[in-house]
């Protein structure tokens, strides 16, 4: 069977690659070697997207030196958004939920605040946001997106009355 760099418990675009089982996920998570390789693969993909992992403990990110040319690639080729969604889901499977939060917030900031990735905005809002496993962190990210979305009245990813009251 072909393997995936960021395996999931669901089928992706390659129907020849079989989904992971819960037992396989647990085995991966217990293996220091597998988890070290996973983080190396994550850093490699981040580099491809023009992003650097600043802190392996927290998952904190920043733009890489090559961000400008890599962001052009992200804006030009939307198939990257599917890969990013897959990476986000896999981070959750592998126990890196804090990494999910940092990656989603990075894309929300770049799309809504900095406006450097206009062609990634829909994916960030429609897909990336909802990969975050922690309900509380997901709510924080939806609120952050709402705060920076223009025009705010067109924001459809959360109920306006709850967003206005959110603390």
Automatic annotation (TrEMBL):
GO cellular component, as recorded: membrane
InterPro entries (UniProt xref): OGF_rcpt, OGFr
PANTHER family per record: OPIOID GROWTH FACTOR RECEPTOR, OPIOID GROWTH FACTOR RECEPTOR OGFR ZETA-TYPE OPIOID RECEPTOR
Domain Opioid growth factor receptor (OGFr) conserved as annotated: residue spans: 5-164
Full protein name: OGFR factor
GO molecular function, one term: opioid growth factor receptor activity
Source superkingdom: Eukaryota
A Pfam family reported for this protein in Swiss-Prot or TrEMBL: OGFr_N
Recorded family membership: Belongs to the opioid growth factor receptor family.
